[in-house]
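Backbone shape codes:
===
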Amino acid sequence: MKKSLVVVALLVFAMSVAQAQKLTGAGATFPYPIYSKWFTEYSAAHPGVEINYQSIGSGGGIKQFCSGLVDFGASDMPMTNDMISGCKEKLVHIPTVLGAVVPIYNVPGVTNLRFSGPLLADIYLGKVTNWNDPAVAKDNPGVKLPDQKIIVVHRAEGSGTSFIFTDFLSKVNKDWAGGPGASSAPGWPVGVAGKGNEGVAGLVRQVPGTIGYVELIYALQNKMSFGAVQNASGNWIVASISGVTEAAAGTKMPADYRVSITNAPGANAYPISSFTYLLINTHLADAAKEKVIRDMLSWVIKDGQSEVSSLSFAPLPESVSSKVLQTVYALPQ
């Protein structure tokens, strides 16, 4: 009897080892708070599955994914046709959640600032260099602004957050569009660099006179001031889940999901909003991993969306999530 029990136990152990899967992913810091939560919960609910996600920035995620170094990548920036053609892997973009990029600032004694798109562009172009500049005062009537130098903070590495921010600047300022342009790693005219959303938030929190840009949850978690931004309708909008949702509401989603929703129409649409994506290999050699990835994506779309609002992200619109599920179900298994 004891011998039989031992044999059964060994068989169960062998089966569990055979079914164990370790997935590796890398990329965007923008959605890291929700990805960390999702991957931990999914692994806990699926014994034997371990998901290791490195928050290294969208540029790094695309590079590692296209080099075949990770099982999936993550990017806030839809890959361009040139990027896709140069990628070793056959891929599909899977939108997972929506978020907002906010202008954070550290100006002692000053709160509730407002920033038009052209003003943000001129600050990052180095044309507006002082907090009491008339251009800042124009957006903030009645606010007592200090005679203090503006210290610009931007990302150090290739970043989807930078792409979202500069994509917006390119749509509202011709000098930015004709200069640095929309890019994950533009040639920044001025400023100091911080690594990741965490690094930018840390620099702005520590250094008076600074301005930066981060995903909304990083500003909230660090209790930092962030400004209202003027949208396409001319309204001043403070980033919120509802504002991001409205920005996505009028978007016609293309078949490959690669879309920009910055400066979207809508009276209450927050103008620096974006989808973020997982980059999924459609021809992964490991069939067992393919099955786990497909199941994980299904869980993210069907169950994970209910958790995003607690971290100040916006869930996928139902029209988008239903379409994404069809794409996930069509993946190899």
In short: The radius of gyration is 22 Å. The chain has 13 helices and twelve strands. The longest strand covers residues 91-106. Confidence is low (pLDDT under 50) at residues 5-18.
